[in-house]
Recover the amino acids of this structure.
C-alpha cells in the first residue's frame, strides 16, 4: 500500500487493487503527437481506461499513468522512440476510477517525408505469456530502487536484472516479450476468431449504409491479407532462433580464429626447439600454419558476413511480428466500428476520424511490410554466401584435423622433445572437434533458414503486391473522407 503514496501518483486518485479487465481478442490503439498528446484512439481504449472520449483527446498520455511503473521504464520508452525507433514493453495503466490494467504496448514513431517524427502510434494487447508473470514483481523491485535512489540507478538495476535473466539488453528482452506475447495470444485464440464481415443489415440505419459498406469491404480485404502474415508468422521462430544462434556463434567463431592462430604459432616455435626430429616437425608445423592462416581468413570472412546478416535476420523477426499486429489491429478496429456505429447516425466528423485512423494504421503496415520485404531480400544472398563459406571452412577444418592427427602420431614416436608438441596437438584437436560441432549446427540452421527465407520472400512479395494494389484502389476513397 505504501507504494501507492509514491511521487508518481499525479492524478491524486487512490489506485485500487481491482483490474479494469478486457478480453484477450481485444486490441487497442492510440495515436499521439510528438509530445505524447493523445489525438485519437479506439473504443476499447476508452472503455478500459474508463474516461469519456473528450477527456482523453488532447490530454498527455500520462493521464493513465500508474504509480507502480518506474520512471526508468518511461525513460527507456522516450529514449527509444525519440530516435525514431519502435519500443515494446509492459505497462501497467490506471483507469479513471483507480483500477488497473496491464498491457504489452508497441509504440511506433510515424516519420514523415522530411525524416521528422510526426506522430506516435501505440498498439496494445493483453499480456498472457509466462514471461509476463515475472513483470509485476520485477517492476516493484525496480521501483523500490528508484524511490530509494534515483532513476539512473533504477535503470542500471533493471539492466542488471535483465542480464541475470539472460538478456544482454533491454531490446533483447523486448523482442523476446513481443514474440512470446503474440505467440501465446495466437495459441489461446486459435480458431476462436471469426473475422468475416458479419453485420446485421437490418440494424444499419439507411444513412450509414454506404459507410458501413466501405468498412465491410475494407475488413474483407484486410482479413484476406492477414492470411499471408499468419503464414509468415509461422516462420518467425526460425528467424528468432537463427538470430540468437548467430549472436552466440559470431563470438565463438571469432575466438576460434584467434585460438587457431595462437596454437599454430606455438607449434612452429616448438618445432624450432627440436633438433633431431625437427625436420618432419617443421614441415608439419609449416603445413599447420598455412592451413591455420587460411582457416583464420575464412573464419574472419564468415564472421563479417554473419555481422552483416545479423541485423537483417533480427529485423525480420520484429517486422513479421509488427506486420501481424498492425493488420490485426486494423481488422479489429474496423470490426469494432461496424459493430458500434451501425445503429446510430455516424457524423461526418466521426467518419473522417475512422478513415484517418485506418489510414494511419495502414501506413504503418506499409512501412513495416516494406521493411520486411527488404530484410528478406537482403538476407537471401547473405545466407547463401554464409552457407558457401561454412562449407569451405569445413574443408579447411578437416584438413587441419588431418594434419594434427598426423602430428600427434609423429610426436608420440619422439621422446621428451615431442612433449610440447603433443600438448599443442591435443589442444588443437580439441579445438577442431569443438569447431566442427559448432559449424555443423550452424550449417544445418543456415540451410534451413535459407529455404524458409525463400518461402517468406515469396509470400511477402505477394502480400506487398496486394498492399500496393489496395493503396491505389482506396487512395481516392480515403482522400474523399479526409
Ligand atoms: C504513443 C504513446 C503511448 C503511450 N502510452 C502510455 C501508456 O499507456 N501509459 C503510460 O503511463 N504512459 C504512456 N506513454 C508515456 C507517457 O507519455 C509518459 O511518458 C508516462 O506516462 C510517464 O509520465 P510522467 O513522466 O508524467 O511520469 C505513452 C507515450 C506515447 C508516445
Amino acid at each position: 500500500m505504501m507504494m501507492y503514496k509514491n511521487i508518481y501518483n499525479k492524478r491524486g486518485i487512490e489506485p485500487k487493487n481491482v483490474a479494469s479487465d478486457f478480453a484477450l481478442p481485444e486490441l487497442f490503439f492510440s495515436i499521439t503527437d510528438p509530445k505524447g498528446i493523445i489525438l485519437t484512439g479506439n473504443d476499447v481504449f476508452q472503455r478500459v481506461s474508463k474516461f469519456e472520449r473528450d477527456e482523453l483527446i488532447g490530454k498527455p498520455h500520462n493521464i493513465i499513468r500508474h504509480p507502480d511503473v518506474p520512471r526508468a521504464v518511461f525513460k527507456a520508452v522516450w529514449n527509444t522512440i525519440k530516435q525514431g525507433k519502435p519500443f515494446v514493453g509492459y505497462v501497467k495503466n490506471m483507469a479513471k476510477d483507480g483500477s488497473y490494467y496491464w498491457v504489452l504496448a508497441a509504440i511506433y514513431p510515424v516519420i514523415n517525408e522530411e525524416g521528422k517524427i510526426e506522430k506516435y502510434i501505440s498498439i496494445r494487447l493483453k499480456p498472457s505469456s509466462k514471461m509476463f508473470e515475472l513483470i509485476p514483481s520485477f517492476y516493484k523491485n525496480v521501483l523500490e530502487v528508484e524511490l530509494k535512489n534515483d532513476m539512473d540507478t533504477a535503470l542500471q538495476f533493471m539492466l542488471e536484472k535483465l542480464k541475470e535473466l539472460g538478456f544482454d539488453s533491454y531490446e533483447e528482452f523486448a523482442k523476446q516479450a513481443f514474440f512470446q506475447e503474440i505467440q501465446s495470444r495466437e495459441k489461446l485464440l486459435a480458431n476462436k476468431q471469426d473475422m468475416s464481415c458479419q453485420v446485421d443489415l437490418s440494424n444499419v440505419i439507411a444513412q450509414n449504409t454506404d459507410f458501413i459498406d466501405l468498412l465491410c469491404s475494407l475488413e474483407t480485404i484486410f482479413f484476406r491479407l492477414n492470411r499471408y502474415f499468419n503464414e509468415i508468422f509461422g516462420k518467425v521462430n526460425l528467424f528468432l532462433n537463427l538470430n540468437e544462434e548467430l549472436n552466440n556463434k559470431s563470438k565463438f567463431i571469432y575466438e576460434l580464429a584467434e585460438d587457431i592462430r595462437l596454437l599454430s604459432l606455438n607449434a612452429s616455435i616448438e618445432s624450432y626447439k627440436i633438433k633431431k626430429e625437427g625436420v618432419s616437425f617443421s614441415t608439419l608445423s609449416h603445413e599447420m600454419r598455412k592451413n591455420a592462416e587460411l582457416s583464420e581468413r575464412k573464419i574472419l570472412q564468415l564472421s563479417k558476413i554473419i555481422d552483416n546478416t545479423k541485423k537483417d535476420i533480427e529485423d525480420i523477426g520484429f517486422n513479421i511480428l509488427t506486420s501481424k499486429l498492425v493488420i490485426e489491429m486494423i481488422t479489429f478496429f474496423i470490426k469494432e466500428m461496424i459493430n458500434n456505429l451501425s445503429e446510430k447516425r455516424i457524423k461526418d466528423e466521426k467518419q473522417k476520424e475512422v478513415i484517418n485512423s485506418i489510414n494511419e494504421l495502414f501506413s504503418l503496415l506499409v512501412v513495416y511490410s516494406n521493411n520486411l520485404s527488404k530484410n528478406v531480400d537482403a538476407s537471401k544472398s547473405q545466407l547463401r554466401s554464409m552457407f558457401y563459406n561454412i562449407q569451405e571452412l569445413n574443408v579447411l577444418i578437416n584438413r587441419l584435423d588431418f594434419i594434427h592427427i598426423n602430428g600427434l602420431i609423429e610426436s608420440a614416436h619422439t621422446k621428451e622433445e615431442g612433449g610440447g608438441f603433443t600438448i599443442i596437438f591435443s589442444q588443437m584437436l580439441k579445438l577442431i572437434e569443438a569447431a566442427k560441432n559448432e559449424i555443423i549446427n550452424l550449417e544445418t540452421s543456415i540451410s534451413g533458414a535459407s529455404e524458409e527465407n525463400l518461402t517468406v520472400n515469396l509470400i511477402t512479395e505477394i502480400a506487398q503486391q496486394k498492399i500496393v494494389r489496395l493503396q491505389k484502389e482506396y487512395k481516392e476513397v480515403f482522400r474523399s473522407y479526409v
In short: The pocket of flavin mononucleotide is lined by residues 8, 30, 32, 36, 60-62, 64-65, 71, 74, 77, 91, 93, 105, 107, 120, 122 (CB under 6 Å). Residues 348-413 form the longest helix (66 residues). The chain is about 70% helix and 10% strand. The beta strands are 28-32, 38-41, 87-94, 100-111, 117-125.
